[in-house]
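Continuing the series of single-chain predictions for the mutant panel. This is the parent chain; the variants come on the following pages.
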Amino acid sequence: MDGKMTNCCFTGHRPEKLPWGTDESDPRCVGLKEELGCHLEGLYLAGCRHFLCGMARGCDFYFAEGVLALRERHPDVTLEAALPCDTQADAWTAAERRRYDHLLAESDTVSFVAHRYTPGCMQRRNEYMVDASGVLLAVFNGTAGGTMNTILYAQRRGLKVITVEI
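Parent structure:
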């Protein structure tokens, strides 16, 4: 792999669209995290080294934590926190904010699409990640929204799309 093919970005749902909500002890959530870990290891073996994550609540957190676990085994792995705006986490709970802050601190790079929230900044963040990548790993439940839009955009851009259905 060379160029963008060494980069993998992620899209997935927030807790409101997950069957287990915020209960990460649910066996389905535990299984999803294990499956993401297997995909990340496979992507590493296929040549991916740089992973981009939008750092939203829910599946983005699972992905970022999986990348950090991968980096423990493979120090050449890098994580980029691709943020839609610097106010992304302002309305989150204290626990979500602590988790977010930890993930940002552990990221190798933090990039911003906008400094303040604007309509469309989330989609622009997703397009930035897709445009910088050769592979998209997606957790998808089949419903319309940002995750579906990102998958469709990645397909139009010719990325390899790996979909984990929930």
